[in-house]
Amino acid sequence: MGELRVSKSELVDSYGRVHRDLRVSLTDRCSLRCTYCMPADFSDWIANDSLLTTDELLTVIGVAVDSGITQVRLTGGEPLLRRDIVDVIRGINALPQPPRISLTTNALRLAEVAQDLKDAGLQRVNVSLDTLSAERFKAMTHRDRFNDVIEGIKAAQAAGLTPLKVNSVLLKGVNDDEAIPLLRHALENDWNLRFIEQMPLDAGDLWARPVMVTADDIQSELEREFTLTPVPTRGSAPAEEFYVNGGPATVGIIASVTRPFCSACDRLRLTADGQFRNCLFARDETDVRSIMRSDSSQEEKIQGVRDILQVVTKAKLPGHGINDPNFIKPDRPMSAIGG
Ligand code: SAM
Ligand code: SF4
């Protein structure tokens, strides 16, 4: 990346929210087909030549970090499908004032790469796992890979990619009887479990408010077996954390739909094809790929990305509007935007 001469300016929106967290989707492709995320026959992939290259990614992330981003989360699609994943992490870690780096993954390739990721500078991983039953896993993801996830989690823990967070989405009549077993298993295996409310972000038309499992449902189900006490400091974290049976272990609930946390949101997003978004649910996105591929000098490109980041941040709305009767789903699914 070229020399950065322009003065620094933090990413503050018109509601005073300072943005510190950048979620970067490395690919929209995935090795699973979780029913709430993408249909089994999904084929509307981003063209390979539209994906940001390693160098383009590192330049854009570098500008974001220089603009005040302190936490970079790599996601997708499935980020471990990117062949350059270790180089991307190493490159981010080599930036001046490197940010904290985490990765959200389905863990299928984690056993293979956990140590390399750690050595390259990755700090921790969030693994997505919605069930403890191999059979259910197959039904929920259309792939028979439960054991690979468990092996991936163990490898991540052995490599020191900790605290290891596990994210679970509960679906009514599918796996909503697993809240308690998942938490029991998490406590026994040193996982930091968080339940995520299902959001209207699938590539089909699956989500419906009347059938979603809410934070209230999850909390009351867990309280049948555990005592939950709110952890007081939340900051900009999306998860409401609860001590389990007095702590120190905790469980989180990410209630994006029923208890939105937009007023504390500090997140921006970069899609795999180089579009900045200021919210998962934003209707607009702003292209940086064309700047990166223009004939401009490296310095002009850097300034262009920096300017776009400011504009995108300033344009952020106060909330995602899911609870507004006129809410319209984003055009792209979670796998393309980056969860
Ligand atoms: N493939 C990786 C994984 O599954 O961890 C990273 C990308 S995935 C889109 C990131 C997270 O989004 C996962 O934890 C997944 O469960 C969650 N997710 C996907 N679709 C969702 C939806 N409609 N509502 C809530 N969470 C969703
Ligand atoms: Fe793939 Fe993650 Fe979506 Fe599941 S949730 S289909 S693992 S991107």
Can you walk through the features of this model?
It is a single chain. It is globular, with a radius of gyration of 19 Å. A 12-stranded mixed beta sheet has the order 7-8-9-6-5-4-3-2-1-10-11-12. α1 runs parallel beside α2, α1 packs across α9 and α3 packs parallel to α5. The chain is α/β, with parallel strands linked by helices and 339 residues long. It has a single domain, classed as TIM Barrel (Alpha-Beta Barrel). The structure holds S-adenosylmethionine and iron/sulfur cluster. S-adenosylmethionine binds next to β3, β5 and α10. Iron/sulfur cluster binds next to loops.
Largest sheet: 12 strands, mixed
| Count, helices | 10
Helix content bin:
25-40%
> Kindly, what is the distance between the CA atoms of the first and last residues, rounded to a whole number of angstroms?
27 Å
How are strands sequenced across the largest beta sheet?
Answer: 7-8-9-6-5-4-3-2-1-10-11-12
| CATH fold topology | TIM Barrel
Ligands (ions, cofactors included):
S-adenosylmethionine, iron/sulfur cluster
Query: Which CATH C-level class is it?
Result: Alpha Beta
How many runs of DSSP E, i.e. beta strands? 12
The structural domain count equals: 1
One letter per element, helices H and strands E, the order comes to: EHEHEHEHHEHEHEEEEEEHHH
* Overall shape: globular
Low-confidence stretches: 1-7
